[in-house]
Each structure stands twice: as structure tokens, then as C-alpha cells.
Write a structure and sequence with these properties.
Elements lengths: L1 E4 L5 H16 L5 H10 L2 H9 L4 E7 L2 E8 L4 E7 L8 H17 L3 E6 L4 H6 L3 E2 L4 E3 L2 E9 L94 E2 L6 E10 L7 E12 L4 H15 L1 H8 L3 H9 L4 E13 L3 E13 L4 E11 L8 H4 L4 H15 L10 H9 L7 E8 L2 E8 L13 E6 L1 H5 L7 H4 L2
Parallel strand pairs: 4-5, 9-12, 11-12
Antiparallel strand pairs: 1-2, 2-3, 3-4, 5-8, 6-8, 7-8, 10-11, 12-13, 13-14, 15-16, 16-17
């Protein structure tokens, strides 16, 4: 069993696990008010914002690729969430998570104590792990707890494991489990600088025999108290948030945030949840072009909603009919990567459930539109896809992944067709976006389960400076619009 720190996309799996255990083993024993307040607290919108500010650190216990337990820690050493799947209780997952949190407090956070608001049924287990009650049982918003603490020895912790580096594009969706009745997204495909997406510089691998057989169970401590907001562990930006934007000053138009949201709370056996963010342009001199641009920007963001709900494809219909508890969820965030008087480039990150829990996906989509006439550009419009470009592009892609065999399943002809827009049934979806460094061109990758060519990459884009890419430029009006 491996313990590692979770990236932002893995928060979804952690929150789903949290709710699953809470709803099954804790909610029946507390008031409806307590259930509602806990459910509100673990909404992804809130948790992800706190995480991005460095005010929550999540750890996960993994058995192979399966997340079997999670613990969330504030930078002051306070345990906020701590849940272990029922089938993994008694197998060391809880103790290993607790040990990782202790090491984090001692080594990284330099927090002299660990605290928790323990569920009453978990007090004895915490005492067994070295904590002590520091107050009487209390109740807040319908949830009962006992405040507990443990001092952390800041001088006796030795580091274990090795640094775990991974390229920014290397993030699988294997553990991506969207929160059932909760909504959320994860955007954790970091940028170019080979960010660390697995541990807080060290990847812990605590073994069961290191802690004994008496595992910490699931009654499980939680604390939905006021957000800790006095500074914390700093996370580097990741995913589309880390793209270096290039927004011109004094633009003659405005870019506004728009949101499409829908949740069907009446269906008890089916989850339908959409939270789609997208940009809207206002102030263009030609109202017809403005309408055209905004229609494209919204449609790009809504692609999954259309595919799985508004106009479902036959495959989705079959999945829904075959699932005991169907799940239709799309959560979309966007970033305007480039904006000039004549052109806008937008990157979208879409996390979705497309029929059931086994059909979790993470997609990169991009949209590059002329603000003069509403033309939406594709890769085939901006570069000449001859052998020379394809070879150079592939070299850059392999440099990004650090893998000389990346995309070796495609020959040059197939690669060229994929760059032209032939996705081969959705496996290789071509994208490009402009940013402060130039242009990035690549694939949103969607291999079938078990495909031997799948190396865990969600999406990969090859960066080119404008000077590097111009020698491959087509005769498209795109190039005049970025001069």
C-alpha cells in the first residue's frame, strides 16, 4: 500500500470516498442538519479553492490504482477529513495515512501539534494512536465531536522514499471518481516544468507491518469548521491555471464569466450535475460577429453536456440503461490564454462522468477564434501538416513526455490525419492554444481501458515559440491576426 499526497484532480476521488463512507456509516447516526452541513462543506467548489490557496493538504492511501483512504490536513496540523473505505479498514490504511500526516507536520509544516475534532466513536482509536482529549464532547451544526491533540516531535523524523518527478502532462484519470451527489472538477495536469504531482517532494511508502495490524477505522474524524486562512503550504499552479496568459491591455471589448449550471435533485437513483464555466465577449463593433463568437465559446464548453444529456449519443443511452446508479456529470473550467484585438484563445478543462462511475474522463478542449469574422481556427488551418512539421512536432512531444516511444503506435500518415482532425474514434483529439510563450499543439488522449499504448497521459501539448512555428505556417489569415 502506498501513501502519497494528492493532486487537484485526485481531490474528486477523495471527496467521493469521503461522502461514500460518511453516508454509509456516519450519516444514519446524526441529525439531518449534520448531514446537510457536512455535505455542504465537502462541495468541490469550496474544497478546491481552499486547496489551491495551500490551506489543505490531502493524502491518499492507494492499493495499486485504487484509492482506499484519504486524510486532509490544514497547515496548522489540524486533521479536517479522515476516511477509509470499509473493505480496507483493519488493513493499515488509516495508520499509514496518520503516519504520513505526522511526518508532514514534523518535516514540512513544522507544526508542533496535531489536532482533530474526533467523532465520539473514534476517540478511543485516536487515544491508541497517541492523541488525548482536550475538551468535552461538543456539537456544531448538528455534528458531535471531541477536540483532541497530540504533540509532534520536530527533531526525530527521518525522511523516507525518493523524490517523485513527473512531467506536467503525466496525469492519469484512473483514480478520478466524481463525487456522487456532490459536484466538482480537478485540474491537475501541471505545466511544462515537470511539476511534482505525487508527494510533497517525497513519496512515502509506509507498510502495514510498520504500524501493526490494529488499524484506525472509519468513524472518522472530520471538522467542517471555519476555513483556516492564515497562510499555508504553497502549491505551484497546475493545469490550465498554469498556462502563461497573454492578454493585451486596453482591449476594445470585455471578457465576462458565464456559468451554465444544472442539477436534477429529484432523481434518487441517478446523478445529473452540470457546472460549466465559459467566457463571453461583449463590446465588439459587429454584433453579428459577437453573437457568432459567443455561440462558439459556449458550444465548446458544453460539448460533454450535449453528448451525454441534451442530445445523448447511442452509447451513452446504453450505458445509462445498463447502470444501476447512472451518473451524468460535466464540470468545466476555462482560461483565456491569449486575447488581442483580433483573436482570442481559450483552454477548457472538462471533468466528466459519462453514464456511470466506470466512465470518468478528463478532457482538454481549446477554442481559437477570430474576432473580426468569427472564424474558429484548427491546427490544420495554421500550419502546413507536411512530413517535416509532423516529425518536428513529434520530437517536441516526446521531449515533453521524456519518452522516445510516445505515440509510436501511429505511423506518420496516421499522425498527420490525427493532426488534421481524425481522432480515431475520440482517442487523439487535436488541440492548440496561444499563450505568452507562443503556441502549443497536442492531443487530448482518450485510450480505451487496457490499451497497451496508454501511458497515463491525459493531454500532451508541444510548445513552440512564434519564431519556431512560423517556418511551418500556412497561408491562413490567422497569422495576420497575431502580428
Amino acid at each position: 500500500m502506498e501513501i502519497r499526497r494528492l493532486g487537484q484532480s485526485e481531490l474528486l476521488a477523495a471527496l467521493h470516498l469521503t461522502w461514500e463512507v460518511f453516508a454509509d456509516e456516519i450519516a444514519p447516526a446524526i441529525s439531518p442538519e449534520g448531514v446537510a452541513s457536512f455535505q455542504k462543506f465537502i462541495k468541490y467548489d469550496y474544497i478546491s479553492q481552499v486547496w489551491q490557496r495551500g490551506n489543505l493538504i490531502f493524502f491518499g492511501a492507494y492499493e495499486g490504482e485504487e484509492l482506499c483512504g484519504t486524510l486532509a490536513l490544514r497547515p496548522d496540523g489540524h486533521i479536517v477529513l479522515f476516511f477509509v473505505k470499509k473493505q480496507y479498514q483493519g488493513q493499515g490504511a488509516g495508520r499509514m495515512l496518520y503516519g504520513a500526516a505526522y511526518h508532514c507536520c514534523a518535516e514540512l509544516l513544522r507544526a508542533g501539534r496535531m489536532t482533530v475534532n474526533a467523532a465520539p466513536g473514534a476517540v478511543d482509536k485516536y487515544i491508541h494512536m497517541g492523541m488525548r482529549p482536550v475538551g468535552q464532547e461538543q456539537e456544531k451544526d448538528g455534528i458531535r465531536y471531541v477536540p483532541m491533540e497530540m504533540y509532534v516531535n520536530l527533531n526525530m523524523i527521518a525522511k523516507t522514499g525518493q523524490k517523485s518527478k513527473a512531467p506536467w502532462i503525466a496525469l492519469g484519470v484512473y483514480a478520478l471518481v466524481l463525487v456522487l451527489i456532490l459536484s466538482g472538477i480537478g485540474i491537475s495536469v501541471g505545466r511544462d516544468l515537470r511539476e511534482e504531482i505525487r508527494g510533497y517532494n517525497d513519496s512515502y511508502d509506509y507498510r502495514d507491518d510498520e504500524y501493526g495490524e490494529d488499524d484506525y477505522r472509519d468513524d472518522l474524524p472530520y471538522d467542517y469548521s471555519e476555513e483556516y486562512d492564515s497562510g499555508g503550504y504553497e502549491e505551484e499552479l497546475s493545469g490550465i491555471a498554469a498556462i502563461p496568459e497573454d492578454i493585451a491591455s486596453n482591449l476594445p471589448y470585455e471578457i465576462e464569466d458565464e456559468l451554465y449550471t444544472f442539477s436534477d435533485e429529484e432523481k434518487q437513483s441517478m446523478v445529473i450535475e452540470f457546472h460549466v464555466n465559459y467566457p463571453k465577449i461583449s463590446g465588439l463593433s459587429d454584433s453579428g460577429t459577437e453573437d457568432k463568437v459567443n455561440k462558439i465559446l459556449k458550444a465548446r464548453a458544453m460539448e460533454t453536456v450535449k453528448k451525454i444529456y441534451e442530445d445523448p449519443v447511442p452509447e451513452i443511452k446504453e450505458r445509462v440503461l445498463g447502470e444501476q446508479n447512472p451518473v451524468l456529470i460535466s464540470y468545466v473550467e476555462y482560461k483565456v490564454c491569449y486575447a488581442s484585438e483580433d483573436l482570442i484563445s481559450v483552454a477548457y478543462n472538462d471533468l466528466s462522468y459519462e453514464g456511470g462511475q466506470a466512465y470518468a474522463y478528463q478532457h482538454l478542449r481549446t477554442c481559437n477564434i477570430s474576432l473580426k469574422d468569427g472564424t474558429a481556427y484548427e491546427v490544420k488551418d495554421i500550419v502546413s501538416l507536411d512530413n517535416r512539421f509532423v516529425d518536428q512536432w513529434l520530437r517536441v512531444m516526446r521531449k515533453e513526455t521524456g519518452d522516445d516511444d510516445f505515440l509510436s503506435e501511429l505511423d506518420q500518415t496516421e499522425m498527420k490525419k490525427a493532426l488534421e482532425g481524425d481522432s480515431k474514434e475520440g482517442v487523439y483529439v487535436v488541440n492548440f492554444f496561444l499563450d505568452a510563450d507562443g503556441i502549443e499543439i497536442g492531443f487530448d488522449l482518450n485510450y480505451e481501458d487496457g490499451d497497451p499504448n496508454d501511458q497515463g497521459y491525459v493531454w500532451v501539448t508541444a510548445p513552440f515559440t512564434l519564431d519556431e512555428i512560423r517556418e511551418y505556417a500556412s497561408g491562413s489569415g490567422f497569422w495576420k491576426e497575431i502580428e
